[in-house]
Amino acid sequence: MRKPSSAAVDPRVRGRLAALGRFCFRHRRWVLGFWAVVLVVGVLIGGRVFEGSVAGASSAGSEADRGGAVVTAADPARGVVTAVVDGKPVNDPAVRAAVTKATAEIAALPGVSSAQDAYGRGPDAAALRSADGHASLVTVRMADTSTGVQADAVTQRLAALNGAGGAHATVGGDLVLQQEVKKQTEQDTRFGEIVTLPLTLVVMVLVFGGLAAASLPVIGAVASVGGALLAMFGFSRIMDIDTSVLPIATVLGLGLSIDYALLMVNRFREERGHGAGIAAAVERTAATAGRTVAFSGLTVAVALSGLFVFTSPVLGAVAAAGVSVVVIAVAAALTLIPALLGFAGGRIKAPAAPVPDEGFFSRTVRRVRKRAVPVALACTALLMAAGAPFLHADMRNSGAAVLPASSAGRQVADTIDQRFPQVAQAPITVVVEGGARVAQAYADEVVAKLPGVSGVRAVTPVSDSVSTIDVLVHGDPQGGQAKQVVDELRADRGGLKTYVTGGAASVVDFTDELTSRGPWALGLVAAGTLVLLFLMTGSVVMPVKALLMNLLSLGASLGALTLVFQDGYFSGLLGFSPTGGLETFIPVLVFAFAFGLSMDYEVFLLARIKELHSRGYSCTKAVELGVQRSGRIITSAALLMVIVFAGFALGDMLMVKQMGIALAVAVAVDATLVRCLLVPAAMTLFGEFNWWAPAPLRRLHRRFGLSEHVELPPIEPPVIPAPRPVEQDLVGTP
Asked: What are the DSSP E strand ranges found in 553-675?
């Protein structure tokens, strides 16, 4: 049989994605040039997105958020820079002289609202002296008109105290913490990219057996990251992008880009192995693997779109950035990869023979099919047990603890908590719209008498019309007792207009938002996923089954997250100190991302099974061949994704580490336990009922179902040699 010409258009392939593949192949120089521009602009301009990001987020519209806004409007300061002077007695003459001189110089700097040390007069100065008399604080409040340059000048002058009089000085404060979070996040993101890209290249060389095919997914991923940075930079101009969003969106874009490009290149090699020329193979790849990529991108985007339901800025920013990153990853796979195949397709080694129908995955499916009920029950029980630890998960705002212990900002925050209790941030702060006298009366008559309150530390006038009350509680500052005090304070406001804020209040507000809006977000994601999978498969059974299985694998991921980051398992190996809980918004992000990635592999597998079933195979055989033909590529894609997530988990930022570990576990569990065992077992139990849909929906799918029209090589029936005539058998018989 004559092989198709490399320039010929395969008349058996038609559809929008096939046309897009043809266009990108024919105009590959223009397509490559476009993505080169995107990469350059993304690196030069999009790389500045870290500078414009915002460190720290709250639940917009919540009481804690409104109270913070009231204080910000009344307080002329925009932030504080704090230095801890330690190592020598506070009353040491040399230390005293150095500190008082620095304080006076700093107070005269532009942008400084006030500067105070432990050597002034009044109770505020006494609070800046540690109980043991061997450490003191210098606090500098920056005016709301100050700039970053002015804050840096203050930081440098305070840092110059290090060594003065033999004392040691460490500079921190909220302004320093914000800058350190941005810097550390950027470093972790760069580190993750540097570590993961070479490793993924090595793995893909092993997968494809050649550098040409292996390099294409890496090139596509790099271009996608450039586009993702550019998109996030654009969003940062119109909305606040929390610093923690950036590595999360980057790791998603990197992982998806590699996965999608891997799928495209693998299908191209398969088509070349079937005898197609380069142009025809690109066209057929765009129509088949391109369809899978488009569906996968839609499902991930739908999962992330559920975050738009929440009012929290960090979740809205993740949704906006995440969806844009998914779109860019899909666009790169559908346009850049066909163009690159046009350049390098001739150097990509085609398999000597098609993927065999007999192998490890087909044998595994047959073994599972023989014991479908026990396998399904065992997998379900194991996944539910793995997710059980999440039932005792505790949410909290970690504050400075998100930074590594070596950071100066965290060291200052920890020192203040341990040695300067009068200056440490109170677990609960009540903002009162009223003068100090009114606030003091409320503190004495209501606040101090609540059972969970251990004391009222201070009543501070912020302005003539706004005051704050620092409330201390028994036990964990963000534990159950503190949350109960928050509810009690909001139930009894003493006839005043108050706002209950602080770490415990923020956790309560975020939890309330999850309770009220979470079901709507879950419903949106579930409905969108069911519709998309129905449009792809024409079945109502498989979408529901896929949804339930994904929830099981998601539970295992959240359970692992709880065991590691709340209970402290493997914390020494991973290089962090447990905070006793999970960062408030991390489980929500894990749900959205892990659910989307699970659907990613579900689409990879179902698309192949659907393709085989549509070509006339029985459900049993379609599952067996579908898993066999896609198992290796799904496993390879999952391995690459785990490498990407693990690379980011090696960073020092606690939030990035939590996301990396959770998503690595989710992908590993989904690609092995779920796809190789649970899916075949469930599809065996359901049989042909897997493809069932009511008659009206079947008609709807025939009319609106999403599909590319591709006539693939027909099923070759096995060749059975004709039996020899009996007479021939008798010839020569002795």
From this structure: 582-583
